[in-house]
Design goal:
Elements (H helix, E strand, L loop, with lengths): L1 E11 L2 E11 L3 H11 L8 E2 L4 E4 L2 E11 L1 H7 L4 E2 L1
Length: 85
Amino acid sequence: MKYYFARINETNCGFEYDTPYLFTTKGSPERYADKVAREWRGCVKGDWDKALQGYWCDTTLICDNGTREIPEADFDILKKYLAVL
C-alpha cells in the first residue's frame, strides 16, 4: 500500500480553487486521482475535455491537480486535517 497527497482543481466562472485530499492505493495513483476528479461533482467519462484535461460538470471544469507519494507517518498526521478518499 502506498500513501498519496493530491488536489482537485475546480474552475468556475473565472475563479479557481484547489481542494487537497489523501488516498491510499495499491494500483495506479494517476488512475485513482482521475476517478476522484471525474466523480467529484458527478461527472461521467463523456464529460472529459481533452484540450483542457478536465471534466465539465455544468459550468465547472474539474481537474486532477497532481498527486505526490508521501510517507505513511506523514499520511497519519495529515489524515487528522484532510479528507481521506
